[in-house]
Amino acid sequence: xxxxxxxxxxxxSLLAGVAVGALIGAAVAxxxxxxxxxxxxxxxxxxxxxxxxxxxxxxxDLRVKLDEVMHRRGQGEEDGTAAGELAQS
Length: 89
Known about the structure:
Elements: H1 3-32, H2 37-79, H3 83-88
């Protein structure tokens, strides 16, 4: 398996972990909530929206970083730079 494939799997695992954690947190909040159902739903909705915003920002940051890596990798191949040298940078 290539390092690039491994990196993509790691990113997907991270995002899946964040999503699972958000769902578990929402379930725990529902079970342990001391306020009314309406207040609980409002707080969960707000929390889900905040989590979604943070997740989108994280995905955008990862895309930018992946684009930078791919761009550098493409330049290295054009310049004749060895792949091993890029891995060390």
